[in-house]
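User: For a benchmark we're assembling, each entry needs the component sequences followed by a predicted structure for the full assembly. Here are entry 17's components. Please fill in the structure.
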Amino acid sequence: MNTYGSLFKVTLYGESHQKAIGVVIDGVPPGIKIDESIIQADLLKRKAGAVGTTTRIEEDAYEITSGLFNQHTTGSPIHIMIENKDVRSKDYSALKKHPRPGHADYVAHVKYQGYNDYRGGGRFSGRLTAALVCAGAIAKQILPFKITHELIQVGTLTNLEKLDEYLEKIAEEGDSIGGIIQLKTSPLPMGLGEPFFQKLDAEVAKILFSIPAVKGVDIGTGFSGITLKGSEFNDPILDASGKTKSNHSGGVSGGLSNGNPLKIRVMVKPTSSIKKAQETYHKEENQTKTLEIKGRHDVCIARRIGIVLENALALALVDLYLLNQTYKTFSKE
Amino acid sequence: MNTYGSLFKVTLYGESHQKAIGVVIDGVPPGIKIDESIIQADLLKRKAGAVGTTTRIEEDAYEITSGLFNQHTTGSPIHIMIENKDVRSKDYSALKKHPRPGHADYVAHVKYQGYNDYRGGGRFSGRLTAALVCAGAIAKQILPFKITHELIQVGTLTNLEKLDEYLEKIAEEGDSIGGIIQLKTSPLPMGLGEPFFQKLDAEVAKILFSIPAVKGVDIGTGFSGITLKGSEFNDPILDASGKTKSNHSGGVSGGLSNGNPLKIRVMVKPTSSIKKAQETYHKEENQTKTLEIKGRHDVCIARRIGIVLENALALALVDLYLLNQTYKTFSKE
Amino acid sequence: MNTYGSLFKVTLYGESHQKAIGVVIDGVPPGIKIDESIIQADLLKRKAGAVGTTTRIEEDAYEITSGLFNQHTTGSPIHIMIENKDVRSKDYSALKKHPRPGHADYVAHVKYQGYNDYRGGGRFSGRLTAALVCAGAIAKQILPFKITHELIQVGTLTNLEKLDEYLEKIAEEGDSIGGIIQLKTSPLPMGLGEPFFQKLDAEVAKILFSIPAVKGVDIGTGFSGITLKGSEFNDPILDASGKTKSNHSGGVSGGLSNGNPLKIRVMVKPTSSIKKAQETYHKEENQTKTLEIKGRHDVCIARRIGIVLENALALALVDLYLLNQTYKTFSKE
Amino acid sequence: MNTYGSLFKVTLYGESHQKAIGVVIDGVPPGIKIDESIIQADLLKRKAGAVGTTTRIEEDAYEITSGLFNQHTTGSPIHIMIENKDVRSKDYSALKKHPRPGHADYVAHVKYQGYNDYRGGGRFSGRLTAALVCAGAIAKQILPFKITHELIQVGTLTNLEKLDEYLEKIAEEGDSIGGIIQLKTSPLPMGLGEPFFQKLDAEVAKILFSIPAVKGVDIGTGFSGITLKGSEFNDPILDASGKTKSNHSGGVSGGLSNGNPLKIRVMVKPTSSIKKAQETYHKEENQTKTLEIKGRHDVCIARRIGIVLENALALALVDLYLLNQTYKTFSKE
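Assistant: Structure for entry 17:
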C-alpha cells in the first residue's frame, strides 16, 4: 500500500505531526554516485515562501541513515528521514468534530475507525511529499534524460507574469485557486513501459494521482485532442530514432515510450483549506454548521507542487527504465 | 507486468493472431454465485457492429476451464480463455517494414528486438480487452454497487443523436475520430483506497490508462475546474453518510471514496488505423514514404470501448474493496 | 497467491477434475529459442509407470497458446494448458464426508466453506505440478547452468538397487513410504540472491515447500552438520572464482550463490492415500470411523517427484538470475 | 527484495556500521493496542551476554517515529529505528582483502562490485535481525495464538544442562558450534496458508531461511520421518476442530494449518567467525593464506537466534492470518 515500484521500490512512512516522515528506497543499483546537493535543491523548490504559499516553513533537514558509502550507493536500501519540527498541534484539534470539506478528515475518521492521527491531516498531509521529493532526487541521478516542470495556468491566468498580484487578491478573499502543471522530458529511449499493466502512461498516471490535490492527468494533446481526426492526431514517424513530426501522443505509443519527449499535463485543484466560511456537517451536532478554518495554508498549492510531480514522475520512469534494461540486456547474451 | 491487483489479481495473456487470449483471476473469494449471462452480455456490448466499428467481428466464445463448481467460485483461480478464430494474418505482413503512425508497431519492434508477434498488433491489439471484459464481469458480481458508462462526446458532437450520420461522413473521408466516455457508480461505501500508493483515484487512473487509446483521465470536475475557487470547488458534507452538496471531487477525497458516486471522464483518441494516405518512415528504405492502411478498422473506437473501461474500473474497485474489508473487519474482532 | 516470482512470474491455475490446468509465464525475455522436446521429456519423467507409482496415467498433452513465434519467445506471456482427460470423479465423492488423514480434504472444506472442488483433491492434487514442470522446462532453457535431481533414500533404503522389490512389498501391505531427493547444479555464477528477503536459499526453500508432500529442506550439509565445529563446517575459498575446498554451505553464503554447485536435500513424506484401513473422523457421524481409500495412488511419490522439484528449483533460480543481471548490467553503463 | 509480506508488509533497511538500521511495517490494521514492553523484552532476549555469545553488546534503543497514536496503531506504516552506536570499524578493514570463509564477504564484494559497505558484514550482519525482532513483536500482538522457541540441541548435546561448560570448552579451542531450535505454536485456526505459492510451510521456510546462519528447516517429524510408512506418518483426525491423534505433519496439511500446533525445527550452523587459524584465499596476493579473525563473536549463535526465529515466524503467520481473514469474512456477507 505504501510501496511503489517493482525493481526500484519506494516505501513512504510518516504522519504530519508525529516524530518523522521518511522513505526507504530499495532496488537501487550499486555504484551510483549521489550528489546530495540535488536532494537539498529539490527540497528547497518544494518549500513554501512565495506569494500564495503557506507560512508553515519546515526546515526539512533530511538525514540519510543507510545505503550510501563513500558517496556511492551500496546496493542496500537507502533510508532518508526528515524530522517533523515546526508542529503546532493545537491548530487542528477542533476539526476532528467538524471535518473540512475537500479534505480526507471525515472519510479517514470512518476508514480508520477513529484511530488515525488526525493532527495536521496525518498521513494525508502534503508534508509526506517531502520524502517523495528526496526519493525522486535519487532517481533522477540514475536516469540518462532530463525532466522539467512548468506551471502553465492558474485559475483564468495563462500568462503568469501577474501571478503574485492575482494570488494576493484571492488570498484577500480568503479563498484558493488551482493550476495546471506541464511535465516534460528530453527524448526518452524507446521501449520504456511493460504491457499490459505497467504501461508507461499508466504508471505515470498512477504516481501523479497519488500526489494530493491532483484531479486530472492527460498525455500529449490529451483532452484537447477531442476534435482532431486521426489524420491530424497521428504523429508521422520521421526516422529510425522514432522521432515524430508532431507529438500529439506525448511520447507514448501503445504504452511504450516512442523516442520522443514525454509530455504530460496535471490538473491541481484549489487548496481545500480556505479562510472563507463554509457550511458543512458537524459530527457532534449531527447537522451542518458554519466552519472557519484557521492555521497556515497555501492559497495556490500548484505553485509548490511542480517539483513533487517532477520527482514522482522520476520514480515511475526509473522503475520502467530498470525493467526495460533487464530484458534488453538479457537478450544480448 | 501482466498482472493487476493485490488481492483480486488479474493476469492477462495472448496476442491477436495466436491460438488464444485469456485471463487468470486469482484471489476470488469462494462461494460467489456467478451468472455467466453477464459475461456474455458484456462481451456483446464490446462487439463491433454499429456504424463506425470494424467489420472483423469475433465470435468471442469464451470457456471457463477452472475455478467454478456448481455455479459458485471455489476459491481457486478462475481461468477464462477465448480462442482467436477470425484471423486474417495476410493483412498485416507489409506493416512490419512500414510501421503505422500512432501504433506500437515500430517501438514494439525495437523493444522486443524483432521477436514480437507483429500480426494484428500482437499483444498491443485491442483484442486483449475481450479477456479483460470477462474478468470485469466477474468482478462486478462481487461489488455491492453499480457501474455505468456513457459516451458523452465524439469529435465536436456533444449531442449524440446524429452520431451515425457524423461517423458515416468521417468513414467516407477515410478518417477516424475520438470521444469522451463518462464512468459513474452508485454511491461507494466510504474508505475505498489505500494511501499512499493505492489511492482510489491512482488505481483507477492506472487501469484506465492501461486500455489502448486512452489519453486522458480526470476525476469529478477535473480539468474543467481550473477556473473554480476553493469556495466553489469544495463539496460541503451534508450528513453522516458523507453525502456532499456538490460532487466536484468526483467521489474521492484524499484518495479515498467519500460516500458519493464516483465520476470519471476518459479521453479516447481517434483510431490510429485510417484509410487516408499518411507520409511516414519506411524501415527498409530508411526514409518517409506514403502508407495506405488496408484491413477492417473502427472509425470511432470510443463507440465500443465503454464496456471495456467500465469493466476495467470494476477490477480496480474490487481489489480496493477487498483490501478495505480486510482492515475494516479485522478491527472488529 | 498463485503467482511466483518478481521478474519471471509464474501463475498456476486449475483443479484436478475440472477442464484444464495450466500456467501463464510472464517476464520471459524475448528472443529465447525454445526447444519443445524438453517440455515433453520433462513431462514424461513426471509420468507414472514405474513400480510404486499410480495407474492413473494422464496423457499430459500440453498446448502453448501464446508467447511463442517462430520457435522464439516474443516477450509476451507464455500460456501453457493441459486438459484433464482421464478423470474418474466417482472415486472421490464419499471422501467429502470422511476426509482422508494427511490430506487437505478436511481443512480445505473448512477454509473454502464447502465451495472447493473436492474431486480428486481439487487444487491440492499433485496434478497441478504438471503445469509447473512445463514452466520449469522453459526456465531451464534460459539458465546457463545445469540442474539435476537424484533419489538418494527411500524408507530405510540408501542403496536403491532393490527399490522395485522394496516398494512391491510395501504395496502389498497397502502402505506407502517416503524418500529423500538431492538436487544439484553445476557451479552457479556468484551473486544470485537478493537480501534481505529474496535470498537464494530462502527462495529455493519456499518453492520446494510449495510442492505437495515436501516436509523438509536443507542446504549443503544441513541438519547433518549439527556436530561439526566452525573450523570443520567453514568452506575455505581457493581462488578468485569463489571455489571452495569443501561445500558444507551447499553453494550459498549470506543468501547468495558463492560460485560453487548448489546442493539441496528434500524430504518427501509417504503418500497419504493408502489402502490400509485408518481410524479417522467422519463428519456426518461426528466421530471417528474406519476409512478404506480406493482409487489409484502412488506407493512412493518420491519416485516421481524429482523432476517436479528440479523444475521448481529452476523457477526460483531463473527469477534470481534475471534480478542479478539487472543490477549487474546496470552499473556497467 | 527487502520487503516481506502481501498484506502485513515489512521493509528492512540498514547496514551494521552505518547510522541506523530499521523497519517499516505497512498494512497494520488500525486500533491495535501496542504494548511496547514486549518489543523491549524481545530485544533483550536477542541480546548477547550469556556464555558463548559476543561481547559486542548493543544498547538496541529503538524509536518508533510514526504509526502509533495514543498507544494504538493508526493504520499508517509504523517505522521503528535503532541507531548503531557501539561500532568499531577498525576491526574489519583487513577482511576486505582476505575474505572470511563461511561469510558473505567475498561474494558480496563481487555482487556489488566493490561498492558494498563491508564494515561489520554490512547488510549481511546479524545486526539487522534486531529490527526484524521489533517487527515480530508488533505482529505477535495481532495474532490470537502463542509462539515459543526452544534450543533442543547444540553440537552433540541434546541435554542442555551442561551447555555453559560445553561452550566454554569450544571457546577455548577458538572454535564455534551450531544448534537446532524448535518452534511451536498453540493450535492455529484452520486454513492459514494460500495455495499454490503462499502455503503456510512455504512462507515459514522462506522467512526462516532469510535469517543468517539457518541451513535447514523441517516441519513436524520432517527428515526424521524417512523410515515411517504412510500408516504411521498419517495423523488420524479426531474431531471437528481438526485435532489429530499424532502430529507428524507439524500442523500443516496441503500447505494449510490444520487446527493443530505448528511444529518446526531449524538447523543453525556454527558461527563462521572463529579465532582458530584458517587457510583461505587472499585477494591481493591471489592465493590462499592463513587468516586469523579478531573481534568479538558468538561461539554459538544458536543461543541468541531463538527469539529472531520466533519473531520471523510471527511475520509469516500474521500475513497469512490477515489473508485468510479477508476471504473468510468476505463470504459471510
